[in-house]
């Protein structure tokens, strides 16, 4: 287990209202049902009545597959809209100010292949900068700088198909960091990584919080990684089941899993 991240430096000053606010948030999806007509669907609740205000430099989110973790993260920059309640990022309502929110929030998916669309890492980072930096030389210089910051500048001209899983994850992170987000959201970023690359990514994220002042929020199944935070949320069956210090919330998660295991085994 690593030590908690220190408070961020002033490299990325935060506004006075810097917070991610979930206010009675609910998300529902329509799914076809075998006992309904083909043109009808059943409504399934993914998240319900989620309320919390996140101000910590690093927050981790844990829970079982299908619990609603990824949906919670995707609400933050409007990848998924809330059906009930509202989500506010640094004073900006995601439903009303989605474009402004997305300029503040960078999102890294579990599988970096979802974000790497160009032949080389350098071209991918340059693509991220295209709207922000018009000058081609400056764009290339900034792309190389962020790749160097993450220790993968030597991969700039390599084919993305030749990279390892850990290298691809760092390049995907570089494409997001290039536009200097205030908030970095990562959906299970260590799932596809081996131990060495997992530890490298943990170090990189800790450094970003300390040096850049980027706030990070990440979901994970790795309970060691869950401790890399000042606060942890447990999402269970679409609800915010526990919220607090990482050790306490991880203990609550273990208790939930143990209880469900006993229930599945039935009476002795």
From TrEMBL:
<dbReference type="GO" id="GO:0016020">
    <property type="term" value="C:membrane"/>
</dbReference>
<dbReference type="InterPro" id="IPR027417">
    <property type="entry name" value="P-loop_NTPase"/>
</dbReference>
<dbReference type="InterPro" id="IPR017871">
    <property type="entry name" value="ABC_transporter-like_CS"/>
</dbReference>
<dbReference type="GO" id="GO:0005524">
    <property type="term" value="F:ATP binding"/>
</dbReference>
<dbReference type="GO" id="GO:0016887">
    <property type="term" value="F:ATP hydrolysis activity"/>
</dbReference>
<dbReference type="InterPro" id="IPR015856">
    <property type="entry name" value="ABC_transpr_CbiO/EcfA_su"/>
</dbReference>
<dbReference type="InterPro" id="IPR003593">
    <property type="entry name" value="AAA+_ATPase"/>
</dbReference>
<keyword id="KW-0813">Transport</keyword>
<feature type="domain" description="ABC transporter">
    <location>
        <begin position="27"/>
        <end position="262"/>
    </location>
</feature>
<dbReference type="GO" id="GO:0022857">
    <property type="term" value="F:transmembrane transporter activity"/>
</dbReference>
<keyword id="KW-0378">Hydrolase</keyword>
<dbReference type="InterPro" id="IPR050334">
    <property type="entry name" value="Molybdenum_import_ModC"/>
</dbReference>
<dbReference type="InterPro" id="IPR003439">
    <property type="entry name" value="ABC_transporter-like_ATP-bd"/>
</dbReference>
<dbReference type="Pfam" id="PF00005">
    <property type="entry name" value="ABC_tran"/>
</dbReference>
<keyword id="KW-0067">ATP-binding</keyword>
<keyword id="KW-0547">Nucleotide-binding</keyword>
<protein>
    <submittedName>
        <fullName>Biotin transport system ATP-binding protein</fullName>
        <ecNumber>3.6.3.-</ecNumber>
    </submittedName>
</protein>
């Amino acid at each position: 287990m690593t030590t908690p991240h220190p408070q961020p430096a002033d490299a990325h000053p935060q506004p006075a209202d810097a917070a991610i606010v979930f206010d009675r948030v609910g998300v529902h999806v329509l799914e076809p049902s075998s006992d309904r007509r083909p043109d009808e669907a059943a409504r399934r609740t993914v998240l319900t009545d989620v309320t919390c205000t996140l101000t910590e430099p690093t927050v981790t989110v844990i829970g079982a597959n299908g619990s609603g973790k990824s949906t919670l993260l995707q609400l933050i920059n409007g990848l998924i809209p809330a059906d009930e309640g509202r989500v506010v990022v640094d004073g900006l309502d995601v439903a009303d100010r989605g474009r402004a929110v997305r300029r503040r929030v960078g999102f890294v998916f579990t599988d970096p292949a979802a974000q790497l669309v160009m032949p080389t890492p350098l071209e991918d980072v340059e693509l991220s900068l295209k709207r922000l930096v018009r000058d081609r030389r400056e764009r290339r210089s900034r792309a190389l700088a962020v790749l160097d910051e993450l220790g993968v500048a030597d991969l700039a001209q390599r084919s993305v198909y030749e990279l390892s899983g850990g290298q691809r994850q760092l390049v995907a992170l570089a494409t997001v960091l290039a536009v200097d987000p205030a908030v970095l959201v990562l959906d299970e970023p260590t799932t596809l990584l081996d131990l060495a690359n997992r530890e490298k990514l943990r170090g990189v994220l800790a450094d970003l919080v300390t040096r850049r002042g980027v706030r990070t929020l990440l979901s994970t199944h790795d309970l060691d990684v869950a401790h890399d935070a000042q606060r942890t949320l447990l999402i269970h069956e679409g609800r915010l089941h526990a919220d607090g210090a990482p050790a306490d919330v991880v203990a609550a998660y273990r208790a939930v899993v143990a209880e469900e295991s006993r229930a599945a085994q039935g009476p002795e």
